[in-house]
């Protein structure tokens, strides 16, 4: 890696130092090629601080939480609850009670649909989402609407992939019970004007859920400042372990919600006649949780905080603009999603070559991108493409890696034309 | 590049660019949809079967070069063959793309030999075999839709 290449980012981040923290980036692929990992919107790689934390947990602290009176149970419980405090601070929540650990964004959204939704949504009510949602922010609402006889409404996007805000506002009615939308689109990168959207939804009397899977890794999030009612995100997309996630909910709303799953840890007392549920947030955490995942997630958030989410965002935006400029110069390449505000995600199609073939050819060069519909089939239909290639950048990526992507695409063109 | 050249042989690139029998069949006796939900490849295969002879095959849809070329080569290869011969060739093709030893020489495989590189790319085996599975269902007549998952 030449220092000249890194220069433009060194002002903001010490990329070579950051890259040293991620062991997998130094692990060759496909017969000795250096890995160029541009599939960060699917999952991010993990720094050794996260890996080491999980190893330390199992080497020194492993026990079940909230149960034993013995030493290790105390240590594990302490680590687990400290992680909750780390998350609370990271997203600006008011209280640890508002932080529910989940398996990921998908589970958080399903929790809200099944607990809040089943209690508060009835026949004739409406749920409003947008056209750029991930399947995980579509299907849970479809299930709920089907069960309750409610109606799912979809706010459209324009040809750039930007939400049509006037249409969104128009679709908000007294029947709208809940509005759910992504902070940023995994397929196009579009960053939604969520502050405005939350304001409009609240003015219409609706409750707001933000799918933050692509928000937290790239943007500063302050849930109190945003005033959203729910905010769900995944640990593995922000350098933490898979199988971890967070559902933030305002305390009063969570308090009024019925439990979701029943089991251990979510109860105060059980008899065959009556069960009394535990207080927040434990009411929503039935069963032994993913303890090592949660302490790993806290280590990931600490890692991000130490570097600074604003510095990460600046670096990623530099990569986004650099890669966009270079991609647009590739013959026959079209970028799908050209919103003014984007996270570091670029979806593209190449004339005459299916994305799946692009993915295979790049892979032979050690370049990992995602190809397909990105769990957003309705969005692919909106843009009239069966699939796209998607390059997504994280804090450890470099302009040199964007150059490698361009080089790989030239090979695709050479092979196919 | 050498493994890639093995995968994307000229025959495959040619059939991808100019797919044969790439149209609906007016007199189709059966049509079946084949779908790979992972990558979105989606084809409809039309067959006209008379007795046990495949009189005509056509296909529509879209997907990657491997799947499209596979559908094209398959249609050209099987037109005029009996359903029994089609079954045998399906077996030959399946062995070819999964890297199992087969009974036919490269010369005997003819155009199908172009798919020999697929076995080096496990993620792409489903692309190559989707049209064949779909056609198989059309011949068997047991399903309206075939999915790789």
Task: Give a structural overview.
In chain A, 50% of the residues are buried. In chain A, α4 packs across α11. In chain A, the strands form 4 sheets. Chain A has a 7-stranded mixed β-sheet with strand order 2-8-7-6-5-3-4, with helices on both faces. Chain A starts with a helix and ends with a helix. With 417 residues, chain A is an alpha/beta fold. Chain A contains 15 helices and 15 strands. Chain A is globular. The model of chain A is unreliable at 1-10 (pLDDT under 50). Chain A folds into 2 domains: 3-34 and 308-416, Aspartate Aminotransferase, domain 1 (Alpha-Beta Complex); 51-306, Aspartate Aminotransferase, domain 2 (3-Layer(aba) Sandwich), CATH 3.40.640. Chain B has 149 residues and is an alpha+beta fold. Chain B has a single domain, classed as Alpha-Beta Complex (Sufe protein. Chain: A), CATH 3.90.1010.10. Chain B is 43% helix and 20% strand. Chain B has 6 helices and 4 strands; from the N terminus they run ααβββααααβ. A 4-stranded mixed β-sheet of chain B has the order 3-2-1-4, with helices on one face. In chain B, α2 crosses α3. The radius of gyration of chain B is 14 Å and the shape is globular. The A-B interface holds A 352-357, 360-361, 364, 371-373, 377, 380, 386-387, 411, 415-416 and B 1, 3-5, 7-8, 13, 17, 38-42, 62-66, 68, 121, 123-124, 127.
Number of domains of chain B: 1
CATH class of chain B: Alpha Beta
Output the CATH homologous superfamily of the largest domain in chain A: Type I PLP-dependent aspartate aminotransferase-like (Major domain)
Percent range of helical residues of chain A: 40-55%
N- to C-terminal distance of chain B:
30 Å
The major pleated sheet of chain A works out as: 7 strands, mixed
CATH class term of the largest domain in chain A:
Alpha Beta
Figure out the total of helices of chain B.
6
Q: Report Rg of chain B.
A: 14 Å
């Amino acid at each position: 890696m030449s220092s000249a290449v890194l220069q433009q980012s060194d002002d903001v981040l010490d990329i070579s130092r950051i890259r040293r923290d991620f062991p997998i980036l130094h692990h060759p692929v496909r017969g000795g090629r250096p890995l160029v990992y541009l599939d960060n919107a699917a999952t991010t790689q993990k720094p050794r601080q996260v890996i080491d934390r999980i190893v330390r947990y199992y080497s020194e602290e492993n026990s079940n939480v909230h149960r034993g009176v013995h030493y290790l149970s105390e240590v594990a419980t302490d680590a687990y609850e400290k992680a909750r405090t780390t998350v609370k601070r990271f997203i600006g929540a008011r209280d640890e009670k508002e932080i529910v650990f989940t398996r990921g964004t998908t589970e958080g959204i399903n929790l809200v649909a099944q607990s809040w939704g089943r209690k508060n949504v009835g026949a004739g009510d409406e749920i409003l989402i947008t056209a750029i949602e991930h399947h995980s922010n579509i299907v849970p609402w479809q299930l709920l609407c089907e069960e309750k006889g409610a109606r799912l409404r979809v706010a459209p996007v324009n040809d750039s992939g930007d939400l049509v805000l006037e249409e969104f506002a128009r679709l908000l009615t007294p029947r709208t019970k809940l509005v759910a939308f992504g902070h940023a689109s995994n397929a196009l990168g579009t960053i939604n004007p969520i502050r405005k959207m939350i304001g409009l939804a609240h003015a219409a009397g609706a409750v707001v859920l933000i799918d933050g899977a692509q928000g937290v890794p790239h943007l500063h999030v302050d849930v109190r400042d945003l005033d959203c009612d729910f905010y769900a995100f995944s640990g593995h997309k922000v350098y933490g372990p898979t199988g971890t996630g967070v559902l933030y909910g305002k305390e009063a709303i969570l308090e009024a919600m019925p439990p979701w799953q029943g089991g251990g840890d979510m109860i105060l007392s059980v008899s065959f006649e009556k069960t009394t549920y535990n207080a927040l947030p434990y009411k929503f955490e039935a069963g032994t949780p993913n303890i090592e995942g949660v302490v790993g997630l806290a280590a990931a958030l600490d890692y991000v905080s130490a570097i600074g989410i604003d510095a990460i965002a600046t670096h990623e935006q530099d990569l986004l603009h650099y890669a966009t400029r270079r991609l647009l110069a590739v013959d026959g390449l079209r970028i799908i999603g050209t919103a003014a505000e984007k996270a570091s995600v670029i979806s593209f199609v190449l004339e005459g070559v299916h994305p799946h073939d692009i993915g295979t050819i790049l892979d032979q060069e050690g370049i990992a991108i995602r190809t397909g519909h990105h769990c957003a089939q309705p969005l692919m239909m909106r843009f009239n493409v069966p699939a796209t290639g998607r390059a997504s950048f994280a804090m450890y990526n470099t302009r040199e890696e964007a150059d490698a992507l361009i080089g790989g695409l030239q090979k695709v063109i050479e092979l196919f034309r | 590049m050498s493994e890639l050249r093995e995968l994307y042989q000229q025959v495959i690139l040619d059939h991808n660019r100019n797919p044969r029998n790439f149209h609906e069949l007016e007199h189709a006796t059966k049509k079946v949809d084949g779908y790979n939900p992972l990558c979105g490849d989606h084809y409809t295969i039309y067959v006209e079967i008379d007795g046990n002879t495949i009189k005509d095959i056509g296909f529509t849809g879209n997907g990657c070069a491997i799947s499209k070329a596979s559908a094209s080569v398959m249609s050209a290869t099987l037109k005029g063959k009996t359903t029994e011969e089609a079954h045998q060739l399906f077996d030959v093709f399946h062995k070819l793309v999964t890297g199992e030893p087969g009974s036919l020489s490269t010369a005997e495989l003819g155009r199908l030999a172009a798919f020999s590189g697929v076995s080096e790319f496990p993620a792409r085996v489903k692309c190559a075999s989707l049209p064949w599975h779909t056609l198989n269902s059309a011949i068997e007549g047991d399903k309206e839709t075939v999915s790789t998952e």
